[in-house]
Amino acid sequence: MALRLVSDFDLGKDVLPWLRAQRAALVAAGAGGGGPGVLENNYESLRVLNVERNGNIIYTYKDDKGNVFFGLYDYQTKQNEHLYTFEKDLQVVSCSVNRERTLLAASLVQAAKEGRRNELQPGSRCLTLLVEIHPINNVKVLKAVDSYIWVQFLYPHVESHPLPENHLLLISEEKYIEQLHIQVTQEDGNRVVIKNSGHLPRQRVAEDFVWAQWDMSEQRLYYIDLKKSRSVLKCIQFYADEHFSLMFEASLDVSLSDSGFKLVNFGYDDLQDQEKLSKHPTLCVFTNHTGSLCVCYCPNFDSWEQITYSVLYFHKGHGKTFTATLGRVDSRVTKGITFLSLDYYVAVYLPGHFFHLLNIQHPDLICHSLFLTGNSEVIDMLPHSPLQSLSGSLVLDWGSGKLYRALLNQSYLLEFLWNTRLDCEKLALLHCVLSCGRDPRRLEAKIIQWISENISACHSFDLIQEFIIASSYWSIYPETSNMDKLLPYSSLLTWDTEIPGITLVTEEIPLPLMKVHSFKGYWEKLNSNLEYVKYSKPHLHYNNSVVRREWHSLISEEKKGKRRSTVYVRNILDNAIKVISNLEARNLEPRLTPLFQEEDNHQRLLMGLMVSELKDHLLRHLQGVEKKKIEQMVLDYVSKLLDLICQILEASWRKHNLHPWVLHFNRRASAAEFAVFHIMTRILEATNSLFLPLPPDLDNTEKNEKVKFSIIVRLPPLTGQKICRLWDHPVSSNIISRNHVKQLLQNYNKQPRSPMMDKSSFSVEFLPLNYFIEILTDIESSNPALYAFEGRDNVDAKFVEEAALKHTTMLLGL
């Protein structure tokens, strides 16, 4: 499965055995009364109510008399604790407990049973209570109203000592949210009581909203209000004290009714009909540590043949609307669509139909996201019951009471990468696997093995290029923010090929309007992303074009006898020495292939220039990062690029059991040698356009000519002929000429020669050669179309004559 759901909590395994043990202990002791021991066999009422910021899970259950019990599972100690019992038959709407576990807030309604008397206050439908539970003491009624109320304690980031004041959110079905400030004091030792409980200060936070979402990890409240039929998304950040701030407002082009009311992540809501979920719009907000802000939206289903959903990438300034064809037309959509947050990705899942893994860091090209449909193993990978994506990668299955941590399944993705045939899936899977970041050396080895066996299987992109760029990017990306804007992520700039089963429309969207002027943490990164969208045109991704120009300039000056400043050249060569040293430090064993080990001044100039130019690029655009850190990042990045080239070649060498320096050019090549040579040519092809430092082209010295010629004659004949047409050299001309003459003479039938032929242009002193040239010319003239001479532009006619004369004299022993 593409997703791996790691169980963090299970009601059936982590709570139920404890409840049964408690009951058994009380039965054995002959005890009764309060506590969890009075639970008889009504275990089906056990369900999760809330997950607090520290990971603690609040749950509830009823005994046979209908009494309501609240319990807490401590995420750190893995222990259960009984919190409180209401000895009335009520239905729980919402519950929350403060960080110190001294106060419990709960909202309850009358249980839906005929003949039951009203357990609540006269005229009220919903009762909201605040209970002192350390020890169990006073109960204060916060609200007794006719509308539903949800409760949520704030969990600020503070030291471990108890807080003198707690803050509680009340969310009303009447479309307002208020914050209560609750001061507590200690009496008689450890007894915690509410101070001045007769009057609790309260503050209005939001009103007239139609949708709200709670982010328990970051203590943020997102909500939408309608202004003149326009949906506006707002975000409030809560801080350690009672202070809170409105952070931004953003216009949304979504259809929401002012008569509706939807809450996300405010605990379990069994008051809504789960079977009707698919008929209501689904909307949620996701953020991550890089400063991303995504709004995922799916309108009402209006077709069983296709579904439309949108993802607004506010941190990129655009949104995408996707239309997915449902895999099985005869299977109606009875379950709602699910959006899940997976760090650098957002997953869109429709049970039984499709699974879409969206790249939120680099959403520009659809090929960097993975869309799967039609494979039941893939699209049925998650539970079909309602799932809720909590903060981070936590996923809660309300129906079964299980809490999962959702992770990309690296092993499955690798296996899928080996088996898929579509280029778009190969590309998306490659990036998904690399983003996992677990055991990168082992991961790279597996990807290199895949590349070596599929080197010619991709037609839309260069496998080696994409791997080198993507792997180098992910090796440096986590070290600092904004690297996604400054370093290349992919070798592709465009993608025009359709993705089977899905279409999309991309539109620019209005950027959020920030409402504060001082930023820290996530908000600083989000603001930086928004500023980049507004002002950075064109993009700032680094490329080696500057290096290419400077390197050619240095080489040209060297040939003309000009020299740059000695200090300038020395600094560049020193950079190269640092890269080579860093490269050697990555490998404990000596390499089989001697890449980057020879004393090649041109190669080292290129290597040093890469370091120099990239360092200048990052220093210009990375604000607030120490120069030493930038220098080390540049050194690591350039070393990584070159190390990956070495790894690819080393893997090929080892796979075919070749030894160092095995490619001698004085004998016929084996199949293994040819396979390795093929990989070498593909590496050269991939790195040439990236302008990475590999050994430069050989010149035409006698030694290098022999090497080139020996390579050409060992290539397959057709490939060798193509290479010769590109190599403007006498040896190449010789090969072309001999092949052409061979072709002319293969079907030669002696015919009477034309007396009208002009012989003056072919006159040479050696008469046999003169006669031979006349014959060849006569054959060509007899059928010009058949004997058209390929590669004519690279052949020196006089050299053909000289080569033929020399060859003839050799054959005659003269």
UniProtKB/TrEMBL annotation:
<dbReference type="InterPro" id="IPR026172">
    <property type="entry name" value="GSAP_fam"/>
</dbReference>
<protein>
    <submittedName>
        <fullName>Gamma-secretase-activating protein isoform X2</fullName>
    </submittedName>
</protein>
<feature type="domain" description="Gamma-secretase-activating protein C-terminal">
    <location>
        <begin position="642"/>
        <end position="697"/>
    </location>
</feature>
<dbReference type="GO" id="GO:0005802">
    <property type="term" value="C:trans-Golgi network"/>
</dbReference>
<dbReference type="InterPro" id="IPR028010">
    <property type="entry name" value="GSAP_C_dom"/>
</dbReference>
<dbReference type="Pfam" id="PF14959">
    <property type="entry name" value="GSAP-16"/>
</dbReference>
<dbReference type="GO" id="GO:1902004">
    <property type="term" value="P:positive regulation of amyloid-beta formation"/>
</dbReference>
